[in-house]
Structures are given as structure tokens and as C-alpha cells.
């Protein structure tokens, strides 16, 4: 339909990507045609059901595995004139646990998906956007792209890598009238959380000393569950942020977009002390000395005030 913007979203089989696809495809003014992609179309049912009438009209499905050059090329070549107005890089995987127990191969998979997966998409879509002097690229980063969290070392590193990549690229893209923006959610209730808990139940942590396993299982995990319970947002909260970003494109949307104001002070701590000691010690005390959720929340609140 003329005037309709083509939005391509990665990782739409569940969670944030699914809700973004549904929200944009159900836009009352029908401003968007959403190409909701996933690596395995067998997982499409939840999306199709949630999309309702939009499915087959303002929402179409396509296969896309962000880890495969061929899959990315095939998907983009299958789009009319390869024209994508808005690219939303959402697909991503988590990884928690003591470093000693994680094989390098598993860490590479996280970078292959969260970092190179986004770059693969941008490389395929950006040249056409630059030629057209228009387009919007959104990257779903994380608060862990701005502040590391204990036992999330490699996941945080993959998101930090994205932040550095985007900060650098945004400057060039500005010259071509292409907008790049990031979204940094805190904890969100999606399959991400369930996958993490299931993963932890299955693993045995070989090669890790019992003291570290104890800190991970009995100190970090319960606090992490509390944090999700106390501060967790819904995928719809994040989808709303993406809708705003897209809608306000003409007003040059913000580059960074944290979705959970409770994390702002944590990030501010880092810039308040250039030696980095304040952040490291604050996290240490939050983890080891204030393990109950009320204490954690009141810590947040005191910082906010
Ligand atoms: N949930 C949270 O607390 C937070 C999440 N994020 C980020 O949000 C994004 C979405 O995660 P969320 O919705 O929470 O988690 P989900 O696990 O619910 O969704 C992740 C999606 O990514 C897809 N995916 C994974 N690998 C690939 C791949 N190689 N190619 C294409 N798709 C792939 C999954 O597909 P499949 O079904 O095939 O596995 C799934 O659709 C991620 O980038 C994550 O890092 C950021 C901050 C917090
Ligand atoms: C804040 C905080 C914690 C945990 C934070 C978590 C668990 C954040 C999760 C964010 C996610 C899931 C982002 C996804 O990209 C600890 C270390 C338990 C205690 C100290 C304070």
C-alpha cells in the first residue's frame, strides 16, 4: 500500500519481537507493513494468533536466521525492491553462569547472535537506506550494554560491543539521513527469563570451585529472580517504546532509550566516578550485603531521590 512503511523485525517467535510485530501491524492508521521474521517458521503460531486480523494484511512472515549470511540475504532479496524503511534488530540470546563452566564455543554463539547477527542485518540493509537517504535502524540492546552484571559477563560484553558499534556508526549514518537508535530494557518477562532458569537447572558447572557455584546459585540467582519480580517489565512496555521511536522519527528520536527508569541511577553511578570503583563496590554490596529484594529496591529509590 502506498505510503505504508516497511518494518522488518528479527526474532518474532516470542517475547519482545512478537509484541513489537503485533503492535505495529495493528496500528490504527495502518501506517506499517510488518515483515515479522523468525529462524524457524514452525514457531509461528503464537505470533499468528496474537496478530489476529492483521496477519496476511499488514503483517507477513518470513524466515530469517541472523547467524546465517545466506538466510539474511535470501530474506532481504525476497522483499519488493529490497525496500526496508525500518529495521528492528531484536533477536538475541542470554547466557549466565560462572565463566569457568562456559565453553568458548557457547560464548561465541552469543556474540554470533547478539553482535554479528545485528551487523549482518545492518550490512545487508544499510547500503540501500544510504542510497535513498532515509531509513531507521533500531537495535534492542540492554541495560547490560551500559552496566555489567555479575555472572552475565559474556552476555553483557556482547551488548557493550553493540553499543560501541552503534555509537560509531550513528555518526556516519547521520550524514545520510539514516537514523540509528537503541533500546536498553532492564529485566523483561519473556522466554529469555524462562530459558535462563531452565538452563541453570540443567547445568552442573564443571570446572568451577564450589564457593563460586554457591555464590551463583544461592546468592546471585535468588537476587536475580527478585529483581525480575520487582522491576520486570512486559514485552508490551518495550514494544511501546519502539512505536514511539518510529512515530517520532521526524523529530530525530533519542539515540539511547532506557525503558526502566529504576536503572538510570545504576548507569549514572558509573559516570559519577571515573575510576569505576563506585560501581563495582555498589554492585558488590547490593549482591552480597543486601540480598533481600526490599533492600535492593530501597537502594534504588534512595539513589533516585
Ligand atoms: N528479557 C529481558 O530481560 C531482556 C531482553 N533483552 C533483549 O531483547 C531481545 C529479545 O529478547 P526476549 O524477547 O526477551 O527473549 P525471547 O527469548 O523471548 O526471544 C528471543 C527471540 O530471538 C530469536 N532468536 C534467537 N536466535 C536467533 C537467530 N539466530 N536468528 C533469528 N532469531 C533468533 C528467538 O527465536 P527462537 O524462538 O527460534 O529461539 C526469539 O524469537 C534480545 O536481544 C535480548 O537480549 C534486553 C534486555 C532485557
Ligand atoms: C541490579 C542488580 C542485580 C541484577 C540485575 C539483573 C538480573 C538484571 C537483569 C537484566 C537483564 C535480564 C537484562 C537483559 O538484557 C543483582 C546482581 C542481582 C544484584 C545487584 C543489583
Automatic annotation (TrEMBL):
<dbReference type="InterPro" id="IPR002347">
    <property type="entry name" value="SDR_fam"/>
</dbReference>
<comment type="similarity">
    <text>Belongs to the short-chain dehydrogenases/reductases (SDR) family.</text>
</comment>
<dbReference type="InterPro" id="IPR020904">
    <property type="entry name" value="Sc_DH/Rdtase_CS"/>
</dbReference>
<dbReference type="Pfam" id="PF00106">
    <property type="entry name" value="adh_short"/>
</dbReference>
<feature type="active site" description="Proton acceptor">
    <location>
        <position position="155"/>
    </location>
</feature>
<feature type="binding site">
    <location>
        <position position="142"/>
    </location>
    <ligand>
        <name>substrate</name>
    </ligand>
</feature>
<feature type="binding site">
    <location>
        <position position="159"/>
    </location>
    <ligand>
        <name>NADP(+)</name>
    </ligand>
</feature>
<feature type="domain" description="Ketoreductase">
    <location>
        <begin position="5"/>
        <end position="191"/>
    </location>
</feature>
<dbReference type="GO" id="GO:0004303">
    <property type="term" value="F:estradiol 17-beta-dehydrogenase [NAD(P)+] activity"/>
</dbReference>
<dbReference type="InterPro" id="IPR036291">
    <property type="entry name" value="NAD(P)-bd_dom_sf"/>
</dbReference>
<dbReference type="InterPro" id="IPR057326">
    <property type="entry name" value="KR_dom"/>
</dbReference>
<feature type="binding site">
    <location>
        <begin position="11"/>
        <end position="39"/>
    </location>
    <ligand>
        <name>NADP(+)</name>
    </ligand>
</feature>
<dbReference type="GO" id="GO:0006703">
    <property type="term" value="P:estrogen biosynthetic process"/>
</dbReference>
<dbReference type="GO" id="GO:0042572">
    <property type="term" value="P:retinol metabolic process"/>
</dbReference>
<dbReference type="InterPro" id="IPR011348">
    <property type="entry name" value="17beta_DH"/>
</dbReference>
<keyword id="KW-0560">Oxidoreductase</keyword>
<dbReference type="GO" id="GO:0005829">
    <property type="term" value="C:cytosol"/>
</dbReference>
<feature type="binding site">
    <location>
        <position position="65"/>
    </location>
    <ligand>
        <name>NADP(+)</name>
    </ligand>
</feature>
<protein>
    <submittedName>
        <fullName>Retinol dehydrogenase 8b</fullName>
    </submittedName>
</protein>
<keyword id="KW-0443">Lipid metabolism</keyword>
<dbReference type="GO" id="GO:0004745">
    <property type="term" value="F:all-trans-retinol dehydrogenase (NAD+) activity"/>
</dbReference>
Amino acid at each position: 500500500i502506498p505510503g505504508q512503511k516497511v518494518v522488518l523485525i528479527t526474532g518474532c517467535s516470542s517475547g519482545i519481537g512478537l509484541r513489537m510485530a503485533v503492535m505495529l501491524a495493528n496500528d490504527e492508521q495502518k501506517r506499517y507493513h510488518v515483515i515479522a521474521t523468525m529462524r524457524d517458521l514452525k514457531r509461528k503460531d503464537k505470533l499468528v494468533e496474537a496478530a489476529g486480523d492483521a496477519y496476511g494484511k499488514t503483517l507477513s512472515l518470513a524466515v530469517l536466521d541472523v547467524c546465517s549470511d545466506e538466510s539474511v540475504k535470501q530474506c532481504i532479496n525476497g522483499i519488493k525492491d529490497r525496500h526496508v524503511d525500518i529495521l528492528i534488530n531484536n533477536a538475541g540470546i542470554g547466557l549466565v553462569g560462572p565463566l569457568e563452566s562456559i565453553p568458548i564455543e557457547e560464548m561465541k554463539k552469543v556474540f554470533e547472535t547478539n553482535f554479528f547477527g545485528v551487523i549482518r542485518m545492518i550490512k545487508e540493509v544499510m547500503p540501500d537506506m544510504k542510497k535513498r537517504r532515509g531509513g531507521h535502524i533500531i537495535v534492542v540492546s540492554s541495560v547490560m550494554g551500559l552496566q555489567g552484571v555479575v555472572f552475565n559477563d559474556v552476555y553483557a560484553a556482547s551488548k557493550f560491543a553493540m553499543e560501541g558499534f552503534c555509537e560509531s556508526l550513528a555518526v556516519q549514518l547521520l550524514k545520510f539521513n539514516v537514523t540509528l537508535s537503541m533500546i536498553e530494557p532492564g529485566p523483561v518477562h519473556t522466554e529469555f527469563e524462562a530459558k535462563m532458569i531452565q538452563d541453570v537447572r540443567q547445568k552442573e558447572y564443571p570446572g568451577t570451585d564450589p564457593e563460586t557455584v554457591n555464590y551463583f546459585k544461592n546468592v546471585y540467582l535468588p537476587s536475580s529472580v527478585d529483581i525480575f519480580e520487582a522491576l520486570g517489565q512486559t514485552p508490551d512496555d518495550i514494544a511501546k517504546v519502539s512505536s514511539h521511536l518510529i512515530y517520532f522519527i521526524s523529530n530525530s528520536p533519542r539515540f539511547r532509550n532506557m525503558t526502566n527508569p529504576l536503572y538510570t541511577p545504576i548507569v549514572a553511578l558509573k559516570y559519577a566516578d571515573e575510576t569505576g570503583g563506585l560501581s563495582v563496590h555498589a554492585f558488590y554490596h547490593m549482591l552480597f550485603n543486601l540480598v533481600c529484594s526490599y533492600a535492593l529496591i530501597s537502594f534504588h529509590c534512595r539513589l533516585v531521590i
